[in-house]
Amino acid sequence: MNDLILHHYASSPFSEKIRLVLGHKKLPWKSVLVPPIMPKPDVLALTGGYRKTPVLQVGADIYCDTTLICDVLEHVRPDPTLYPPHLKGACRIFAQWADTALFWAAMGYNLQPRGAAHVFAKAPPEAAKAFSDDRKAMSGTMVRLRPGDATSAYRSYLRRIANMADEHDFLFGMEPCVADFAAYHGIWYTRAQVPVLADILNATPSVGEWANRMEAIGHGAMTRLTSADAVTIAKGRIPRRPVPTC
Ligand SMILES: N[C@@H](CCC(=O)N[C@@H](CS)C(=O)NCC(=O)O)C(=O)O
């Protein structure tokens, strides 16, 4: 089995989703830190143009998008499962909602001016502008929620998650499934990256307790690798043949 190589950066919420899945499945992994903004020559060389984060590399195979990466990791180590049989449909549909509606509400709230000022407080002044320009260029015509709308939506979504966390340790039962990992990462950003805005969580204590349980899963056994070494590994391996999925 080739090593699992995650191309990611520390403050990336979708990367946190996968770091925790790796920890939950007790899969050892190699960490390649990538730039949060363009240019990303090694990432693009591996992916053929996809620039988002994270990306999973297994030998010469490159997997883009965390929904696919979760499936790959489930295939590599089925136990503990991300998709309990009786919840297979519900947890995937919930995860899709969490990775989109919940994520964009959370990030619209997290990166309102006070949050962005906190994130870039220790960076040179041009860093905030470079980040904002990069994301505008990446998003094209996508309409982002205004901070006030994002705050209302986030608050309401947190109440819905609290309804679930009030009932059991994790959202769908006593063990985490893909729904928990997808719901957690935007909330992780609030707690870990913009603690100045974390008071929004005070109204839903069970969400904080659930988030503590998610955080406790940890990232498992990780060792570092340079992106140049990752490219060399990809060059030296033969890609697997695609397998049909259903
Ligand atoms: N649908 C994608 C979304 C990934 C995503 O939007 N990641 C953010 C970082 S958390 C990103 O790519 N930002 C731009 C970048 O890193 O270049 C997935 O599930 O992997």
Report on this structure.
With 246 residues, this protein is an alpha/beta fold. It folds into two domains: 4-81 and 219-236, 3-Layer(aba) Sandwich (Glutaredoxin), CATH 3.40.30.110; 85-217, Glutathione S-transferase Yfyf (Class Pi), Chain A, domain 2 (Up-down Bundle), CATH 1.20.1050.10. It is 54% helix and 9% strand. It has helices at 13-24, 41-47, 66-76, 88-110, 113-119, 125-139, 147-165, 178-193, 205-217, 227-236; strands at 4-8, 29-33, 55-58, 61-64, 222-224. Strands 4-3-1-2-5 form a five-stranded mixed sheet, with helices on both faces. Helix 2 (41-47) packs parallel to helix 10 (227-236) and helix 4 (88-110) packs antiparallel against helix 7 (147-165). Glutathione binds at residues 12-14, 36, 51-53, 65-67, 99, 138.
How many strand segments? 5
Bound molecules: glutathione
The total tally of domains equals: 2
Percent of residues in helices: 40-55%
CATH class of the largest domain: Mainly Alpha
Secondary-structure element pattern, one letter each: EHEHEEHHHHHHHEH
Radius of gyration: 18 Å
- End-to-end separation: 24 Å
Structural class: alpha/beta
Unreliable stretches: none
CATH architecture name of the largest domain = Up-down Bundle
What would the average pLDDT be, to the nearest integer? 97
What is the helix tally?
A: 10
Q: What is the 3D form?
A: globular
Q: CATH topology of the largest domain, what is it called?
A: Glutathione S-transferase Yfyf (Class Pi), Chain A, domain 2
Tell me the fraction of residues in β-strands, as a range: 5-15%
Biggest sheet architecture: 5 strands, mixed
Strand order of the largest sheet: 4-3-1-2-5
